[in-house]
Amino acid sequence: MKSKPFLHRRILVAIKSCLAAFSFSADAAEPQKAAQIHYPLDSQETFTGPEALFSGEVQVKMLFPENDTAHYSGAYVTFQPGARTAWHQHPAGQHMVVTDGTALTGTRDGKVIEFHQGETVWCPKEIDHWHGATPHSAMTHLVVTGSKDGANVIWKEKVTDQQYLAAQKQQTVDIKILNKPQQAMVAIAAFTASGELQKLQKAVADGLDSGLTINEIKEIQMHLYAYAGFPRSLNALATTMQVIATRKSNGIADAVGVELDPLAGPQDSLAMGIKVQTQLAGQPVTGPLFDFAPYSNVLLQKHLFGDLFARDILDFKSREIATVAALANMPAVTPQLTAHIGIAVNAGLTHKQLQAIAQVLANKVNQASADAVTQALNNSNQ
Predict the structure, then answer these.
(1) Residue 155 is assigned to a structural domain of this protein
(2) What is the pTM of this model?
(3) Does position 5 have pLDDT exceeding 50, yes or no?
(4) Phi and psi for 312 in degrees, rounded to 5?
(5) Dist. CA 127–CA 258, nearest whole Å
(6) Residue 295 domain-assigned?
């Protein structure tokens, strides 16, 4: 298919401008014959991606044009959820660098690459491809596009919904990267935090069947008092007690697990909490909020990190799986969820495992909680 010169000029502009090299006389007294060119913020064109070439809402913000010696241009392109380009190719190739969110790019052979903030994909010349956002989150990437013989893009037909959905299926995370007890923790924590006790009953039973012990489930629910409050924590514990009693009456003997004195804890909770908090955060925790309310951090250090995280029934990874899942299923806690994505990574969870938590939430809890984790991952640059 032939290129569309007019649209090509609007989307990835090939404007000629001179950026000459510095020139000096032999004695270095001669003045420079040309200056650097400054492109002030928003001095270049910004426009909406044409419907003929994009699906969904797309904004193109030009940054710099091609010139006589540098045969490439640059732009920020922002895709709203579900938006993508049409099929196209670049005669001289293109670099794509994600600056916010998660990007997808696919080729005719059906291969799809998912890449994240700070990551780059190079598309060689004359390869048909498309790129865009995931279905549930916006994405911005910087594109640096080469030109050949005055052309930098050849547009083709639009990507169909079927092709885009097929790419999503390919990108579905394999939740087996979390073992069965870890998967069970996700639903238990999410329903504990939301107070959905009928759903929690099944989640607890599934957790016991997956190999979680009674004490591990209790520990998850006690841990979450610091996030969801004592009422939700105590209601969850009562629900778990009922599930265990019912299973026992049906002849099911569930493993109790490691016993720990409920009053056991470090003699100096504050000192232990500061140590654990610093380890998980990656640095001492300070900031304007704790300048404003210093004792709030003392409470976090003593009770959350000293009295809860320091208990050894659950390791740090397990506590972060529970915490991320719980916060994802609670309204209006985006800053805390984003912070715990970073803490989870410091505790040893990988990006793929955090994606798997989102997938388990989508499968067993609800799509909104899954989207919350995905967005927090995008915001945290993990």
Answers:
(1) yes
(2) 0.58
(3) no
(4) -105, 10
(5) 57
(6) no
